[in-house]
Amino acid sequence: MTTPLDSVAPTDWHYTVSVRSLCEFTAKQGSLDRRFTPSATALEGQAMQLAVLARRSPGYEIELPLEGQVGRLRVRGRADGYEADVNRLEEIKTIRGPVDLIPENRRALHWAQLETYGALIAADRGLEELELALVYVDADSQHETVIRDKLTAAALQAAFEARCAQFEAWAAQEAAHRTARNEGLAALPFPKGELRPGQRLLAEAVYRVAANGRHLLAQAPTGIGKTLGTLYPLLRAMPGQQLDKIGYLTCKGTGRITALEALHALRERTPGQALRVLTLVAKEQACEHPTKACHGDACPLAHGFYDKLPAARAEAVQAGWLDAPAQRRVALKHGVCPYYLGQELLRWADVVVGDVHHAFDPYGQLYGLAQAQGWKLALLVDEAHNLIDRTRDMYSSQLSLTRVREAVAAAPASLRAPLRRLAGELARAGRDQVEDYQPLTELPDNLAEALQRVGVALGEHVQNHPLEVGAMLEFYFECLSLQRLLDRLDTHSLCDLQRSAGRVVLADEPVNLSLLQEDEPIDTGDVREVLLSVRNIVPGHFLKERFEGCHSVTLFSATLGPPDYPRQLLGLPDDTAWIDVPAPFPPEHLTVQVAHLSTRYEHREQSLDALVDVLATQYEQHPGNYLAFFSSFDYLDKAATRLALRHPQLPQWSQARSMGDAARRDFLGRFVEGGRGIGFAVLGGAFAEGVDLPGTRLIGAFIATLGLPPVSPIQDQIRERLDALFGADHGYADLVPGMQKVVQAAGRVLRSVDDRGWVWLLDRRYRRPDVRALLPVWWQVPS
């Protein structure tokens, strides 16, 4: 930025920046290079630092807090190590493979950080000169590659001041922006004039937890305005709590549209629209050249990325509204990648809208950057009843025999021996087990060894062939994910081997025995398909530190209860607050009926006539549009067929097993004002939540079964594991998540305070006290 300092900031401005942020802003030049280079994990980095420390002298100092100021810019950070007896400052980086594989941009960044720490420690300790050592430690061999230079304190200080001068105009702009943002948010009016009663209760709860640095579980029904009811109070809390960033995260993409609409209305009411809103876009959606690799030699939008970034960044933050179209427009104007421009803008946005994986995935960008930069971060999680299943998937992995076999076919000759051995050991483990499903406390030794050998072989391969992408790289990631979860296997996750009824041939070609070691036999006979899985059951083991690392997190949904369910499974703190917001609908607006029949699996055939008669009778008495939900496509098809036979005059249409966007729109397009008919859908599927059909577009819903998962050995193991961790009879494995699906589906009926409708619960078990306790308290369910 070239804007004069005094014109963009108050005269008393000051700005604090980390060494890392300062250097990332000033030291990166040239092209973007996102080619894969093997990297170490955070735990491996800590281990290597300890290994280096063990080789240093007894007086070696580690994690030195350093701080310096140039003008109004304050710079802080922690240097890795200082050895006073030789006057050497070290920056330690853990890597895998040769140093030559590290992109030039990254090496320049590392050296800039070391130089900056050198200036800070020289000024702090009155040093006249200093030896700098950039130490790259290989995680596998522990070999150190050291790049050294000896510089005077004057040279270090000059480089530091130049770096600060390069950043100072941007810092002044950011300080002015933050001042304007906080002043605007402190007086932000509610865009709708007055908050609704339930919306006010929710907003007050969100504000209180943000003010106290706590977390909140908010169960709030449809119709109260949850999006504005959470965003507005958190934005109002932002200045007082000195929040750096707010993340509005969703479990499904449709929620982001509503969030952006609300943020647009709020932003318009801040003076000068001083609120930067960024949408985090998936790479596959933002990529302009999906067939090109992400480096300057292959993609024109990666070439010279960091040289063109300053102008693109300046224009983007000046605009402030950074949804996907805006990011693309700015990026293409300046010839840079839209996706990676968005990643850079994450540092300078006030509110970030995106998927939950950005905060909760092991490699989530929002959480990772917040920890690295020391941001004070607050999160809002929409439709949070989905978060347990979403995060379970994030911390689960699997490997099938078919997948290994595909890797064998695609592998170069040098990798086939370890891959074939893995295939043989996986086949043998499946063949040796007594049942088709077998839980494991640990892998068989031979299988564990084969998996580790494949990991080492693939790691060496990608190190030696860094420009290669494709099947081997993807398979390497799969093996790494599985191995890392196996290394952390405990009661929070389940490891198992599953053998399917079908058969696959292990190899299509004769085995080249010259590629095998004598101690690596391989079975090439026909074997059943085998699936090795690590299934996370309690994601809270991994998420606990995520919640601890955020200032405040609010999880909200129409179906979150009972509160102990998300609190215990997600690892929320014990002092997490809970609010159950009253419904805005008069109870008499929703007529709830229970059909005295059984939809248990063994009773479904004999109760099918009675079930479809309930649908037909309700339709005859109150014609209109209805949704009928079933636990599976098989059950749905049988009910739709039986209804057509017994009541052919009744219009109906059904959800298909595979539906694209156009087919989904056609399905929902049948629900018109004043329309008549019954749409058949799967409980928990695309039409069971996130669907808004107000007024007479939908006047009722039929829900067959209790939404329980099908009986299976895996489900039995999940129940046993949860019982062991949290006690018996809690319903965490089946009843609680099943009833959440039921209430979500029923929530399609009343969408506004003026709506009226019917919900039919098609099973006599809905009269049981334990089931009724999980239904909304305002429902008038007949006993």
Automatic annotation (TrEMBL):
Molecular function terms in GO for this entry? DNA helicase activity; hydrolase activity
Check the record and name the PROSITE patterns matching this protein.
HELICASE_ATP_BIND_2
Gene3D superfamilies, sorted: 3.90.320.10, P-loop containing nucleotide triphosphate hydrolases (3.40.50.300)
| Coiled-coil spans in chain | none
Q: Which Pfam families match?
A: DEAD_2, Helicase_C_2
Which InterPro entries has this protein been placed in?
Answer: ATP-dep_Helicase_C, DinG/Rad3-like, Helic_SF1/SF2_ATP-bd_DinG/Rad3, Helicase-like_DEXD_c2, P-loop_NTPase, PDDEXK-like_dom_sf, RAD3-like_helicase_DEAD
Assigned EC number: 3.6.4.12
Q: Which keywords fit this entry according to its UniProt record?
A: 4Fe-4S, ATP-binding, DNA damage, DNA repair, DNA-binding, Helicase, Hydrolase, Iron, Iron-sulfur, Isomerase, Metal-binding, Nucleotide-binding
Family from the record: Belongs to the helicase family. DinG subfamily.
Entry's PANTHER family? DNA REPAIR DEAD HELICASE RAD3/XP-D SUBFAMILY MEMBER, REGULATOR OF TELOMERE ELONGATION HELICASE 1
> What is the recorded name of this protein?
ATP-dependent DNA helicase
